[in-house]
Automatic annotation (TrEMBL):
The lineage of its organism: Eukaryota, Metazoa, Chordata, Craniata, Vertebrata. Residues 86-105, 616-637 are annotated as: Disordered. It comes from Calidris pygmaea. Residues 12-113 form the Protein phosphatase 1 regulatory subunit 21 N-terminal domain. This is Protein phosphatase 1 regulatory subunit 21. Keywords: Coiled coil, Endosome, RNA-binding. GO terms for cellular component: early endosome; membrane.
Amino acid sequence: MAAVAELQGKYQKLAQEYSKLRAQNQVLKKGVVDEQANSASLKEQVKMKDQSLRKLQQEMDSLTFRNQQLAKRVELLQDELALSETRGKKNKKSAESSSQLSQEQKSVFNEDLQKKIEENERLHILFFEADEQHKRLEAELRTRLEVLETDAAQHQAVVDSLTRKYTDTIEKLQTDKAKLEIKSQTLEREAKDCRLRTEECQQQLKNLQSALGSRLEESLCIINEKVPFNDTRSNRYNALNVPLHNRRYQLKLRDLAGQALAFVQELVTALLNFHTYTEQKVQIFPIDSATDTISPLNQKFSQYLHENASYVRPLEEGMLHLFESITEDTVTVLETAVKLKAFSENLASYLCFLRKILPYQLKSLEEECESSLCTAALRARNMELHRDMKRLTAVFEKLHTYISLLALPSTKPEGLLRTNYNFVFTNIATSLHGFHDILKDLSKHYSQKATLEQDVPTATQKLITTNDCILSSVVALTNGVGKIASFFSNNLDHFTTSLSYGPKAGTEFISPLSAECMLQYKKKAVAYMKSLKKPCADSVPYEEALANRRVLLSSTESREGLAQQVQQSLEKIAKLEQEKEHWMLEAQLAKIKLEKENQKLKNSLSGHLTETIQERSVLPNVAEQKKETTEKSPREPIKSTSLIGMLTVTTDNEKAPDVESREDLIKNHYMARIAELTSHLQLADSKSVHFHAECRALAKRLSLAEKSKESLTEELKLASQNISRLQDELMTTKRSYEDQLSMMSDHLCSMNETLTKQREEIDTLKMTSKGNSKKNKNR
């Protein structure tokens, strides 16, 4: 169900992301439509500007044509005027008449020239105004073009980012979809398994209900008949019952006690160092005891400080006894923590020691302030240490009161109610943090005091080293108390929540006496359980067990295969018994043959001996030579072969071979041969059985592998279909985005082409206007 809820949550997240992407896509579509509308309006403006430019160009063409006509007319008039001057020299008469005509014509020409000049001025003014308007339009269009280019670049960047985002989201969605499909398939399988299990569990539940009903009736009858009273109803009797053993709680509590013991040991060493170095400091400053007698107050103070170990060491011993009392087998609560009382008493004795030395310490600081070596700054530091020592003793009093309260349940349970345990633990944590803060201030003030005392003219090296030692002990004390405070505050929940550990259905232990009785009952119960336990048989070695486990995992034989192996082994045993009988008969026959052979050997050996005796009597010299050769050369073995094998016999001239030893030799040879053959036979049978079992296991493995291969091929087909479908979807989305991008790019290209055309037309207009202005200036 949790997996289904996760899937639903993921589907909801994907749907929200998809809706966001659709909304963003709609916004982009609106932006594209607005850009298209702006481009259409710009196209219309460009058309209007083209029309106005064409009109201006036509006017310019007409003006240039009129200017050309006027220039030709002026040239003709100048030519006529030159002809008339040449003609006037020839005849004055004709000159007079022509002068009248020329004056009339000059007046007409002057009027025409005046009109043309006025018209040319008016055209120049119009051309200048048109040029200025054209420049303004060109500047506006250029600014508009830059704005549009920046907008287009921004839109292109947005489109690119959105395409990347969409591709990433599509890839993520595809991977999530594949994962979800795999999860859905696994969940469907798990659901099927769960249904089958639920059906089985329902059946088992019905059977159990029926069985438990019958057992409940029997147990109720037994309880009514045999049990006189129920001790769990009253807290007094229930406190005597042994609770369930919480080993984890006990181990955790022992671990915490070990850590607390280590912290207390650090604290004890730091306190010892602090008191001893303070004693040395009192004997050195402000008056050195080696050169002069110190005040009686400081003498008494150093005497009390010398006794610090007898008050500080018991703290470590009390914590050690408390740690040893917390074991894995006990039940540890405040009612059973008897050793906590001893630790609180040790802390009370140390508190009495602090109260005893506090007035002497304060008076010693005041006496140091009154000395002539003490400066104003040093006096201020001494007064700060004066206040810190008072605060330190007050913190120890607080800690003693709270720890004595925690020790009350083990001695006087009515002194502290269970409801106040949490309050006491929290106050201990706050007191420890306050203790840490006081020690921080003490170390800071003492370091300042040590630096000021170094500047005193009568400061010796012994004083400087003592100050350094005191400062290091104070720093160690602050670090140790900081560790204790953090340790207690971190484990405060465990201390407060683990107090309900006790008998079943019981809220609390009534008294320490009941807790002690419960612990005695627990020891008796443990001893009884140990007596019931029987010693287990020797287990298989670990390496053999691993090897057997591998064999068992590799082999997948069923009961039928094992039965077949047993049947085959029985048949082989029967065959071996038949062969055994056969070989027994063969052995009897061999014995008979052996006896015959022995008789033959006896006869042959007796004949050989008689021949050797005769030879010795006839040839004594030859015997002497033979003795020399036999003494020089070692005994040579004589090999005799028969049906039973090859036997080696060493010939001795003095002793004949013993018949019984040969029989034993032959018998041992036969027995060794039979044992060797039987061992070879058994080894071959075991190998054949092992190979047969391996073949069966491999065949079953092969069938399982084929089934898994078929299932994997089906899953691969489904996965390939899903991949192809997702690829098609991806291609369609890519095509749609590519089409949109191509449309936008075409639109931008068309806008750029129109703008380039406008720029070219504007440049041509500028060139023509410049040429016309030059021509007009020349005229």
